[in-house]
Amino acid sequence: MRKKRVLLLSEGFGSGHTQAAYALAVGLRSLDSTIQTRVIELGNFLNPVIGPMIVSAYRKTVTKQPKLLGKLYRRQYKKSLNRFAQLALHRLFYTHTEQVISQLKPDLIVCTHPLPNAVVSRLKRLGLQIPLYTLITDYDAHGTWTSSEVNKYLVSTVEVKKKLTDRGISPSRIEVTGIPVHPNFWQTYDKSELQAQFDLKPLPTVLIMGGGWGIMYSDDLLAYMTRWRDRIQLIYCVGNNEKVRERMLAESSFQHPNIKVLGFTKEINKLMDVSDLLITKPGGMTCTEGLSKGIPMLFYEPIPGQEEVNCEYFVASGFGEMLVSTETIDKWFELIQEPYTSGQHRMNLLNKRNQQYNPMECSRAVLQLMQ
Q: Locate the Glycosyl transferase family 28 C-terminal domain: which residues (predicted)?
């Protein structure tokens, strides 16, 4: 009997979409070793020259003109991509998608980004018979995710399901599964061993993340955090942004034994375990990873649109707080120096996580739907 094949299509507009695809792929294989998975960032795969250029332009817009993105997000919020837009995408960037699908012969296609989702939807309208599942990787449901050709939506929360049903999508086509995270984030590690691995002291520790693109918070507040460096360990993760890392390493305020400035790393799960507080942009994937670790979160500078909604959800759920001033930093940096209070708070978050979230639920749902 031929092994079942799942094709997961993403795009490189931020790392979260592709991380979700890989997390789902690993989860499926761990539940059923006979399943074969393939993750592809479709635009970069089909257009290895043009694709990265488009992603780079998007990254510059996120950095320089986030308000413009917010306006576009809100203007198109209730609108799915129309047939003309789908045709244009296919002709300009995705002309060989059907050929890729034909070669790989998947039994199921899962899209974790709206663009490949729109292209596969068009192919289904033209006769493609393969089921299409759409994994929405935020805590909101923008109209560009939606299409009548989608067989099943996999969503983060009941609130997102309601947003889809309010648009006329049948509840039977929506599964509340949570956003999948890599199984590594469900493991717990010995804190003293992690401190030795990362050359850390047994001190309260704060992890500051700028996402895969290393978009960090304002320089003033980054520098303000370093005033605590004699009492608090600070780990700055700037992703692939080597310019930011070099600039920070060159500044005297960051040159201290209790300060680490890291580039890209695949060990965020361990860094969350060894830390007592996470300061991050509220990307859907990072927030879900923080949720899985039960680490309290402070959110900064959400990109207008989906990150604002992500932030609202996690603040309302008690998993985080907006970082609005130096007073917010002082409050939390004081709290994590009180071992009992800090430990109790994290235990409460872990209990709440256990009630609301299971990292394998999405993989189990997909596996069940395939049978």
A: 206-343
